[in-house]
Amino acid sequence: MLVDDIALTMHPEVGAKTAIHLIECFGSAEAVFRATPNELITIANLRPTIAESISRKEYHSRAEQELAFCIKHHIRAIPSTDHEYPDLLRECPDYPHLLYVMGKTDLVQTKMISIVGTRNITSYGLKMCDALIREMAALIPDLVIVSGLAYGIDVACHRAALKYGLRTIGVVAHPLNRIYPPQHTDVAREMVRLGGAVLSEFHTGCHTDKSAFVQRNRIIAGLSMGTLIVESAAKGGSLITAQMASGYHRDVMAVPGRIGDRYSEGTNQLIRTNVATMVCSANDIIETMGWETEQQPESCIDPPTLSYPISGTEQAILKYLNQEHPVSIELLSEQSGIPLNELPALLLTLEVAGFVRTLPGRMYQKL
Quick one: which of 133, 75, 145, 129 has its CA closest to 104? Predict the structure, then answer.
């Protein structure tokens, strides 16, 4: 029963690998909870205290509430024993036993690519996301783009996928009773509406911390046969995702950047150390992944001017800008209510899309 699967993942002393071990020992979560404490100890080598706790079904009441929440909000809870569970993810040694999915995307889709990068996206990174996804959409119309719905490269990839008619999956590091950052709620809704999905391994009782983002990264790396890093500093979460993908024996690719640029240091290092294959066009990705296509893509060396459908948050920014009188970023934050540390990435999106221009002294003007 699905309640057993949810209850198993709720147990605080049953992590992903322990859950996998128990399923391997007994065949299903239902069988785990049917087992006696002695069987849990002798067959699965559990500590007596954990075995007794599992036998008492201490988390089933909470699991029933979680299942009711999922049904009410049209969230699918997919255990690893279900045919809908993605085969590629199940190949990873630390796969999550349960996925919560909002949306209708087929998770056993064969042509998926994960794309991640820095939250501090530059205009170069934004243009490369747009150009590469534009080219791939023309060649592989059933491709699914996987990313993390975070600021920067992640949300740029989701938006580009939507723009060019591709389905896209956002893997988040929190329960599906909210979207973080909240500014990306509109994007998430559009992803689901257009046949994509938002998914998580976290139930509504989970509290997000830094470790949750690392856990999230392994799902991004595990869902597809290839992971592309567009921009990254010398250290960052996207490099962790790259290392995970490499550890899963998946293809790792990276877009090179100019020597000396801070947010190209990580990608250039991946290429220099042969962790990643260099990608300069969609054709490079297609060749690396071994995908077949009859049509040759256009070069993305000189991508076109961008025209993004802007979100409600970005529309709120534009409301406080005008053509005659530039506004400081500090005043813009005060007037719009958007935190100061979140504005640069949002303004960069608007600038590259042709809505805003940057002036000296952290001043911005509407075009």
Answer: 75
